[in-house]
Amino acid sequence: MPAVSPVHSRVKVSAPGKLFLLGEHAIVYNGICLITAVDSRLYMTLEAEPSTKQILTITAPAVGLDHWQHPLHEIAETNQVSGPASFIASCVALFHRQFPFNVSLKIETASDFAATLGLGSSSATVATALFGLSSLFGVGLSHRQLFDMGVDAIQQVQHLGSGADLAAAIWGGTLYYANHTPREIVPLDIPTLPLMVVYSGQKAGTVNYVQQVRQLHDSLPHIVPPIIELMLTLVEEGRPALENADWPRLGQLMNIQHGLLHAIGVDTAPLADIVFQARAAGAYGAKLSGAGGGDCAIILITPAEQQLLSETLTHAGYQVLPLSVHATGVRLE
Length: 333
Ligand code: PMV
Hints:
This protein is of the alpha+beta class. The chain contains ten helices and twelve strands. Helix 1 (72-78) crosses helix 2 (86-98), helix 2 (86-98) runs parallel beside helix 3 (121-136) and helix 3 (121-136) packs across helix 4.
C-alpha cells in the first residue's frame, strides 16, 4: 500500500465526554441506550516530523505520560502496547495499517475534565486520535469509518465495550444507539435538557463492573436477563419522553433504571445518597450514569430547583459539575 504524507505539520482536535441517560449495562447485551455528549472536552495536538527513525511520542499528563516514546513500526506491527499509552497506540497501529506513513508523530493531550470523573476520557481519546490522524494525513475518514476503527481500537485494549461512548464522542449531541450489527446510531433532536451532574467521589473501573454484571447475568439466567430486558423497555419509552420534553415521564424512567442498576449490584452508598437527596429536593428523577461503582449521578430537575440542591449536595461533600449536555462531537480546534 502506498504511504500517505501529512497535509499539515500540526493539527489540534477535540472530542466531548459523555453521560448515559438510560440503558447502561443493557447496551452491552446487544441492547439499546440513550447517551448524550457533555461540553467537557479532551484536546489532542498531533504533530508530524520527518525523521529516519520513526517514533511515537505521547505526552498525556492526565494519565501520567511525559514524553513516552516507542518505535512506530513496532506499534504498527504488534499493536500490543499496554498501560496508559494503549488507547492512542492502538489507534495509531490501526491507522498505520490502513494508511502507512513514514514520519515521526508527537501527540499531546489536555483535558477539561479529570480522567477520574468517568466522563469517557478513553473514548474521547480514541475519537481525537483517529480524527486527528485522519486530519493530519488528509484522508477524510467519515464519522462511520472513525467509529468502526475506534471500536476495533477499544476492543484491542479492553476486549469489551458497547461503543456507545465512542459514538457520543464522534457524533456529539444526544444519540439513540443500538448495539447490534450493524450498529445503529441515531442523532436525536431534543429540547434543552435540565440536567445536573454530580460526582460521587469515587472512581469506578468500567471493565470490572461489566465483568461483574456478566457473571451475575450468567449465574442467574431467570433473573438478570429479564432485568436487562426491562432496561431496554425503559430506553424505548425514554426516547419519546426525551424528544417531547416530557420530564416527569423521563424522570420516572430514570428512577426505575437506577433501581434496576441497584438490583444488579452497581449502585454505591454515595450514588444512592445523591439520588435520594435529589428526589427529596423535588427532582423529576435521578440515577447513576455509566458502569456504576462510583463516577457520576445525573439529576433531571427544573433550573429553578437546581441552585438549592446544588448547595445541599456541595455542603454534603459532593462535587456538582457545571456541565451542559448535547455538546458538539469530534472537531478541529
Ligand atoms: O462507566 P462508563 O461511563 O464508561 O460506562 C460504561 C457503560 C456500560 O454500559 C456499563 C459499558 C459499555 O461498554 O457500554
